[in-house]
Amino acid sequence: MPEKKKEQKPTAESVTAGTVPFPDSVLLIGSKLEYIPKFLRELDLQKHLCIGNLLDPTPPHWMRIRPFAIGKRLVTNGEYLKFFQARYEEAEEGGNEFFYDDPELWRMVWEDLNLQITQVTMAVLAEEGEVVEHEEVYHNAVNALDAYLTSLRMEMERLLLLQTGVYTRESSKSTGTQAIGFLKRPGKKTQRFEFTREKRLARLFSLIRLKLCKSIFQAPEREAGLEDDLIAESEDQYDDLAAVVGDIDYLLKNLRDQYLRAIDEQYRQAFIQNRHPVETMQFLQRFKLAIKKHKTLADPVAAHEIFYPRYWQRPGGERARSAIRGHRVRWEDLPIIGITLYEAAAYTVWLSETTGLDVSLPSEFEYERAASWGLKNGRIDPASDEKLIVEPCRKSVLPWEGTKDFNFYFGREGSINANKQKEYARLLNATGRKINGESIDQILGFGWQWTLDRFNESERKYNRFENPNYPVFTDIEVACAGKEDEALTVYEYEPYRSLESAYFVVRGAPDVIGGAGLTTRRFAVFPLRGYRNISFRIVIRPEDAGGDGL
User: Fold this and answer.
1) pLDDT of residue 4
2) What are the Cα distances from residue 470, in Å, to 64, 332, 368, 473, 491?
3) How far apart are CA 463 and CA 61, in angstroms?
4) Do residues 28 and 60 lie in contact, with contact meaning Cβ atoms separated by under 8 Å?
5) Cα-Cα-Cα-Cα dihedral of 521, 522, 528, 531, to 10°?
6) CA torsion sign, 69 to 58 to 404 to 410?
7) How far apart are the first and last CA of the chain?
8) How far apart are CA 19 and CA 443, in angstroms?
9) Which has the closest alpha carbon to 281: 123, 155, 126, 135?
10) Closest CA to 148 of 339, 351, 363, 361
């Protein structure tokens, strides 16, 4: 039998070769209409594009951005698969690198990277059409996987309890949702009892957390009273595997009914035909497959059996694909989709540990630097005696600036799910930009991308940079077109990291918003979900990128 070929681990050289470097720079974040080139302002009047309205939420601020290198392309299925499968190599070699089932990895992503969320308030429909607030609290989550389980349970609570028309704010006890159960205990008579959807949901997620304890808790054997806390010796305890499967099937049926009521009409048929998967239902189905494979409730379940990307058909990442005449793009070469912010961040932690590089997700401004500015513009060169010229109008605000086809952006922009070779090549060409001969692909109109910045609902205009606590540089000898010989106020860019915000910013796809979209349009999403149209790219920062001053 031929020996299985070992996957090649990424190296510092191979990872760095897939990035484009940017130097220390002074650049503009945001913009306004007077900075737009004259021909675009004329086009704005002719086509009624309302560019001024698009730019209004982001008034300009001059920022200093540290050197970094950004990935030429989005991270692919094949690249993420190496991280996903690293656990096998670690088990064989006894190495110390992070791997997918390592609870320390998910704790680090949740806490050390400052990506945790504390709580989020959701508006839900209760009895008689009344809207009530439902708080999701994450204070007790020990890591990102634990928080993800909490978020799934909360969503199911909202659907199964809050939106059934029987929920009240005084009590979450429901009526009319009871079912009959039978509990068998060794040496005792079979007991008949009643329990509600709420109890079914609570005991199922207690069991899920217990089965995943080796992937969630750093020292599960030391967690005092863990089993007693999670599954109490009561009439609600599971007797066998069939009871667990019964609860899952019961919840799946009820979730399906609730989603059919709530889902958008355009997705209804796709949902019915299983072409529009819903994350909560997909998770329950995966967990059911995992425990049935183990055949006994005594066996633990590993994270990789359930948490692999939402649109991978099975943990190995292989999908049946039609390769008629080689017209299909290889699955390994397509961008990874269907992963949460934390799963994307976990990949960067693993890559940092594997290569020795400082790898992370990009900040909002690092993405905007790559998408909107040329390499040389705004560069800080301490060795040069020339006065630095920074011109606001050089920033590419709209995606068709330069060589792009204007009409292309009034139709459907590039899809992250393109899988035919010709279509994929066309989209790469249409959504990339050249930087000193190097192309950064999939950056305009291809799909949303995770960033490290949280979304501040009360601060849509970057006014946080005017806070006196931010480092500000006013003594730089910089001339700006239209403000010759006038010193600029330059702010040190820092991602917005306040724990008060439970939503993170994605950047990239302009989408169709009344016609044209901004190349650097921002959008906020919940980080504990995997989305079909969100991927990510990596950023590498040099060790000395955090020096003081300019």
Assistant:
1) 46
2) 12, 43, 20, 10, 7
3) 9
4) yes
5) -10
6) positive
7) 61
8) 13
9) 155
10) 339
User: d(Cα 352, Cα 314) in Å, to the nearest integer?
Assistant: 26
| Three-class DSSP category at 488 | coil
Distance of alpha carbon 95 from alpha carbon 105, whole angstroms: 14
Question: Helix, strand, coil % (nearest 5) of the chain?
Answer: 35, 15, 50
Tell me the DSSP string of 78-136. Answer: HHHHHHHHHHHHHHHHT--S--TT-HHHHHIIIIITS----EEEEEEE-GGG-EEEEEE
CA-angle at 64, arms to 496 and 489, nearest 5°: 100
The larger pLDDT score, comparing residue 509 to residue 17, is at 17
With tokens 């379940």, the residue in question is: 301
3-state secondary structure of 191: strand
What tokens appear for 542 in the block?
A: 């040099």
Q: Which residue has the tokens 């992963």?
A: 339
The three-class DSSP label of residue 393 is helix
Is the CB of residue 229 less than 8 Å from the CB of residue 213? no
Among 326, 504, 479, residue whose Cα is nearest residue 389: 479
All residues at 6 or more sequence positions from 36 whose CB lies less than 8 Å from its CB, including other chains: 44, 51, 55, 393, 397
Residue 472's SS3 state is strand
Round the CA-based radius of gyration of the chain to a whole number and report it.
26
Count of C-beta atoms within a 10 Å radius of residue 34: 12
Please, how many CA atoms are within 13 Å of residue 431, restricted to the half-sphere of its CB?
A: 28
The answer to whether residue 230 scores a pLDDT higher than 70 is no
Name the pTM for this structure: 0.87
At CA 333, angle to CA 336 and CA 530, rounded to 5? Answer: 10
Question: For residue 121, which of 134, 130, 139, 132 has the smallest C-alpha distance?
Answer: 134
Length of the chain: 550
Q: How far apart are CA 183 and CA 243, in angstroms?
A: 9
Residues 18-37 have pLDDT tens digits of 999 998 888 888 888 888 88
Q: For residues 274 and 382, what is the distance between their CA atoms, to the nearest angstrom?
A: 59
For residue 377, count CB atoms less than 10 angstroms from its CB and return exposed for 0-12, middle for 13-18, buried for 19 or more.
Answer: middle
Which pair of structure tokens corresponds to residue 219?
């020292």
- Specify whether the CB–CB gap between 27 and 374 falls below 8 A: no
Instruction: State how far the Cα of 339 lies from the Cα of 277, in Å rounded to an integer.
Output: 14
More confident of the two residues 380 and 153? 153
Q: Residue 360 corresponds to which tokens in the numbers above?
A: 């992370």
Residue carrying structure tokens 């070992």: 6
E strands, 303-379, are 359-360
Q: How far apart are CA 35 and CA 397, in angstroms?
A: 10
Q: Is beta strand 359-360 parallel, antiparallel or unpaired with respect to 388-390?
A: unpaired
**CA 402 – CA 40 distance, rounded (Å):** 11
Distance of CA 145 to the CA centre of its chain: 14
